[in-house]
Structure formats: structure tokens, C-alpha cells
TrEMBL record:
It is found in: Cell inner membrane. It comes from Vreelandella songnenensis. It holds the Pfam family T2SSF. Its main location: membrane. Keywords: Cell inner membrane, Cell membrane, Membrane, Transmembrane, Transmembrane helix, Transport. It is a multi-pass membrane protein. InterPro entries: GspF/PilC, T2SS_GspF/T4SS_PilC_CS, T2SS_GspF_dom, T2SS_GspF_sf. GO terms for cellular component: plasma membrane. GO terms for biological process: protein secretion by the type II secretion system. The chain crosses the membrane at residues 174-193, 227-246, 381-401. Residues 74-197, 278-400 form the Type II secretion system protein GspF domain. The lineage of its organism: Bacteria, Pseudomonadati, Pseudomonadota, Gammaproteobacteria, Oceanospirillales. It comes from the Bacteria. Belongs to the GSP F family. This is Type IV pilus assembly protein PilC.
Length: 408
């Protein structure tokens, strides 16, 4: 019999309103989400609630994609439940009910169904690779085999917290200059399209020759009024086309990531972030008992940059043939000398996981400092850019009026 797909499960999920009595016949009412009335009654009975009435309130609308933060919360909650001595299947059912996001509830209920049918927790996770990466699955599998599932789930949650925090800082570094540039261009276009034409009509009534700066702004305004819409459409089309092509063409995606790494200031932040994610992932896998070669494969997939992904896959191939990790890293010419030296010391001392963790912390701190420095630099730069753009147009518009006042 074919296994129901996620869409089929979503279509059969409904919202149910119920009323009943709890401890000491206390009247209760509420709302639950489930596939059928029987499931809701069983769940409420498990909570010592006697159901008196239950009715379907409509289908559940799935909105919002499952994000890494949801998986992190799931990992943390599962660790807490299992540590409290609650069996795995019951823990999954309780955690599923705790989620307000229907998509996440469906996913956890599907995991519970798999475990109830006799599948191991790690095998159940493997059926949803779009939500659970290889690192999560490796950690859970290792935890099941060694009896340390709680610590592995907590380790995964801590890892995801670190990685998501690093991602947020890198996004801040990328978006901040972009927002400044977009704001400057938007204000300039608004002045050229809406404000300058008002002055242009007034200047024509003067019948006098306009100053060179004013004439330049007027001509630029005329050109902008004619071309701003097609130009904006063309820029948007190019961006969407590049994004579409990058998702489907590996060489183009590699070139774009290479160009990103070569940018001043921003490229330095992205480089440090990629090294930090590599070190953090490899430290987590290695400390959890995952073989180094498999850990490198996982680290390649979580690097966040195709240039580093290719470099890590190259390292994996060389390590698989017996090459030391630090030497393989050095040969890629992508990792800082200090990082290579720290990894070398960790290999010699038998403390590779500890040293990789220190490398990750060092580069994460450098990313923090670089983002803070960029933010501090951009604040006065915003004032200068907007001052030059807006102030230049305003001065150009008032120059003829000043000249007219001088003549009078």
C-alpha cells in the first residue's frame, strides 16, 4: 500500500471544536487539530478530558514554510520530553500538539505515525530530507545506538542556534548596504519624476538660460520619466533571471558565489562565516562519533557557499585517501593559515573537535566585529549619500531662482 504523501495528510487535517469535563468535573472547551473525530477523542482522553461534544470547525489551511528555527525548537522539545522519561512515541505526540504552525504539526504527526509502525526515529527522519539535514539524522542515529539520544538532540539544537545566529548576522551585513542603495535610488527617482517637472514648468516661464547643473538635472529628469519604468522592469527581470539560472546552472552559481567572496568588506564577512560554519559543523559531527569523511560530506552541504562546498568536497576526497585534514585544507587555498594551524594542532593532540569548535568561535566573533564595523561605517555613509543625491537636486532647482533674485 502506497504511503500517504504530505499533501494528502494536509488535506485530511481538520480543526475540531470540543467541550467536555476535566478533573473534578470542571467544564472545559477548546480547539484541536487532527485527521478525524476519533483521533481527537483519543488525545483528549489521554489528557483525562471527558468529551461531551465535538464538531468539525473546518479544514486547516497550511501557511508558512517549516524553517530551521522550527526544527531547532522540535529538537529542544524532544530532548526535554525524553529526558523527563516520556517514551519516544508519546513525546512525538505531545510535541506535535504543542506546535501552533499546522505544517510543523503535520510533520511531527507523520514522524509519530512512522515510529508507531515500528520504524526507528532516525529512519523516520530520513523520509523528510527537505526538513532534516544529514547532520540531524547522523546525530539521532548515533544517539539511538549509544543511548545518548537526549544529549544528541540538545547538541543539534545548540548547533542550529549557532548556525542560524551566524546566518542572521551575514544577512544583516548583506542587506544593510542594499537597503541604503535602494533607498537612495528610490528617493532620487521620486525627485526626478515628481518634483523636478514642477520646477521645469516654472523655469520655462523665466525665458532665461538655466545654469549648467540645473540643465543637467532637468535633462536627467526628462530621461528618467521616459525610461524609469522599462529600466526598473529590466533590472527586476535580470535579477529574477539570474536567480532562476543560478538555481539550475551550477557553473553560474559558482561564479556568483566567487564574485560575492571577492567583494570588499562584504566578501570578508562571507568568507569568515563560511569557515565558521564549516568548523562548527565538522566539530559537531566529529564529537558525536560520526566518521571524519562523512562529517566532511555534511559540512560541504551546510557551507552556504558553492566555492567552499567544492573546496570541502575536495578535502573529503583527499582525506579519504589518507591525507591529513590540515594539509588538505591548506591545498584548497581557501582557509586562513591560523585555521589550518589550529586544525593541525588538534589532529596532533587528538583534540580535533575541541580545536574546530575554537576555530568556529573565533571566526564567529570576527563576523560579529565585522558586521558591527560595517553598520557603524554605513550610518554616516547613508547621510552622505542621501545628502549628495537629495541636496544636489534641491540646489540645482533653486539656482535659477537665486540668479533671478540677483538680476532683480
Amino acid at each position: 500500500m502506497a504511503r500517504p504523501t504530505r499533501k494528502t495528510r494536509a488535506a485530511r487535517l481538520y480543526r475540531w471544536k470540543w467541550s467536555g469535563t476535566g478533573h473534578q468535573s470542571r467544564p472545559l472547551k477548546g480547539e484541536s487539530i487532527g485527521h478525524c473525530k476519533a483521533d481527537i477523542i483519543v488525545e483528549l482522553t489521554r489528557q483525562n478530558i471527558h468529551v461531551r461534544s465535538i464538531r468539525k470547525a473546518g479544514g486547516v489551511r497550511i501557511h508558512g514554510a517549516i524553517k530551521p528555527a522550527d526544527i531547532m525548537l522540535f529538537s529542544r522539545q524532544m530532548a526535554t520530553m525524553i529526558q523527563a522519561g516520556i517514551p519516544l512515541l508519546q513525546s512525538l505526540n505531545v510535541v506535535a500538539e504543542s506546535f501552533k504552525k499546522p505544517a510543523m504539526m503535520i510533520l511531527v504527526k507523520a514522524l509519530a505515525d512512522d515510529v508507531a509502525s515500528g520504524t526507528s526515529f532516525s529512519q523516520a527522519l530520513r523520509r523528510y530530507p527537505q526538513h532534516f539535514d544529514s547532520l540531524f539524522i547522523h546525530l539521532v542515529a548515533a544517539g539511538e545506538q549509544s543511548g545518548t539520544l537526549v544529549s544528541m538532540l540538545e547538541r543539534n539544537a545548540a548547533y542550529k542556534e549557532k548556525v542560524e545566529s551566524l546566518k542572521a548576522r551575514v544577512k544583516k551585513a548583506l542587506w544593510y548596504p542594499a537597503c541604503v542603495l535602494i533607498a537612495g535610488i528610490g528617493i532620487t527617482l521620486l525627485l526626478l519624476v515628481k518634483v523636478v517637472p514642477q520646477f521645469e514648468g516654472m523655469f520655462q516661464s523665466f525665458g532665461a538660460e538655466l545654469p549648467a547643473l540645473t540643465q543637467l538635472i532637468v535633462e536627467l529628469s526628462t530621461l528618467t520619466q521616459q525610461l524609469w519604468l522599462p529600466l526598473a522592469g529590466a533590472i527586476l527581470a535580470v535579477i529574477l533571471l539570474l536567480r532562476w539560472a543560478a538555481q539550475r546552472t551550477a557553473p553560474l552559481a559558482y561564479r556568483l558565489d566567487t564574485a560575492l567572496l571577492a567583494l570588499p568588506v562584504i566578501g570578508n564577512i562571507v568568507n569568515k562565516a563560511a569557515v565558521a560554519r564549516f568548523a562548527r559543523t565538522l566539530a559537531t559531527t566529529f564529537a558525536s562519533g560520526v566518521p571524519l569523511v562523512e562529517g566532511l560530506e555534511t559540512a560541504a552541504g551546510t557551507s552556504g557557499n558553492r566555492v567552499y562546498e567544492q573546496a570541502v568536497r575536495q578535502i573529503r576526497q583527499e582525506v579519504a585517501t589518507g591525507q591529513p585534514l590540515h594539509l588538505s585544507m591548506k591545498m584548497t587555498h581557501r582557509f586562513p593559515l591560523l585555521t589550518v594551524q589550529m586544525v593541525s594542532i588538534g589532529e596532533e593532540a587528538g583534540a580535533l573537535a575541541t580545536m574546530l569548535r575554537r576555530v568556529a568561535e573565533y571566526h564567529e566573533e570576527e563576523v560579529d566585529n565585522a558586521v558591527d564595523a560595517l553598520t557603524s561605517l554605513m550610518e554616516p555613509l547613508i547621510i552622505i549619500i542621501l545628502g549628495v543625491l537629495v541636496g544636489g537636486i534641491v540646489i540645482a532647482m533653486y539656482l535659477p531662482i537665486f540668479d533671478l533674485g540677483t538680476v532683480i
